[in-house]
């Protein structure tokens, strides 16, 4: 049975109950449902802990996909106890970490609005994220920062819409990334929409995001690097230059 990935419909869900459906030889745990995000699309998977009926904890160091997107494997830290199949656990996501990643991932979407060039790569991090663009133009990082903060402070709503795999296939131009395809194969694809009626942006993405741009907080472009003749890497950090928070 495919796992019920609860985070796909509720980015703010940080705890839930779940039943163990499999325990792998290497300790990886599969559940009937989960609120833990699995590594995908440049966003790291969630960490946190599972609480057992006796109150003891199983610390989680990684969440990843299995052979397909409908399989999610929770990897305990070395030495952590193993649950048994059929056991009910209470899942607790490391919320401060997840929320930083949600803010960062949303910031990456805002950057793709300010810099409307094809995306060649991206990675979301707790302290710094990067987005690579197919561009040769020279652009001022302070100017980009100002435009980013304008979008943040305008507090646009960030919502989720669903389209079918077939609808995405029929409209390939809505994908900004040149070499990373949105998660398909589950029958539906999520569109992250910024602004009323997607007035700011609409982009297929399986990551987690905040519900309004103001939640992103203060961000800035720390550096713009030349990575080849037609590639520029933008590094986003929280806070103001010299005062990351």
From TrEMBL:
Entry annotated with the keyword Chaperone: no
Keywords linked to the UniProt accession: Metal-binding, Zinc
Pfam family, one: tRNA_SAD
Cofactor(s), by name: Zn(2+)
SUPFAM superfamilies: ThrRS/AlaRS common domain, Translation proteins
GO cellular component: cytoplasm
Residues of the Alanyl-transfer RNA synthetases family profile domain: 1-245
Matching InterPro entries: Ala-tRNA-synth_IIc_core (IPR018165), Alanyl-tRNA_Editing_Enzymes (IPR051335), Thr/Ala-tRNA-synth_IIc_edit (IPR018163), Transl_B-barrel_sf (IPR009000), tRNA_SAD (IPR012947)
Record has Zinc-finger as a keyword: no
Localization: Cytoplasm
GO annotation terms (biological process): alanyl-tRNA aminoacylation
GO molecular function term, any single one: ATP binding
Entry protein name: Alanyl-tRNA editing protein
Species name: Rhizobium sophorae
């Amino acid at each position: 049975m495919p796992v019920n990935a609860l985070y796909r419909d509720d980015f703010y869900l940080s705890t839930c109950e779940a039943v163990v459906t499999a325990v792998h030889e290497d300790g990886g745990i599969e559940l009937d449902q989960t609120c833990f995000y699995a590594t995908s699309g440049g966003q790291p998977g969630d960490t946190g802990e599972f609480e057992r009926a006796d109150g003891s904890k199983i610390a989680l160091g990684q969440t990843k996909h299995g052979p397909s997107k409908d399989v999610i494997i929770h990897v305990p830290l070395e030495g952590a106890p193993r649950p048994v199949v059929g056991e009910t656990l209470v899942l607790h996501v490391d919320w401060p970490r997840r929320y930083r990643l949600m803010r960062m991932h949303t910031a990456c979407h805002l950057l793709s609005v300010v810099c409307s060039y094809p995306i060649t790569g991206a990675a979301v991090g707790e302290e710094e994220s990067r987005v690579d663009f197919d561009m040769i133009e020279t652009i001022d990082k302070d100017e980009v920062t100002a435009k980013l903060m304008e979008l943040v402070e305008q507090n646009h709503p960030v919502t989720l819409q669903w389209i079918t795999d077939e609808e995405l296939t029929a409209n390939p131009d809505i994908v900004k990334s040149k070499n990373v395809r949105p998660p398909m194969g589950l029958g539906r694809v999520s569109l992250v929409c910024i602004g009323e009626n997607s007035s700011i942006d609409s982009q297929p993405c399986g990551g987690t995001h905040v519900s309004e741009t103001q939640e992103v907080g203060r961000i800035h472009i720390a550096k713009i690097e030349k990575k080849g003749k037609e590639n520029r890497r933008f590094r986003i950090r929280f806070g103001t230059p010299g005062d990351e928070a």
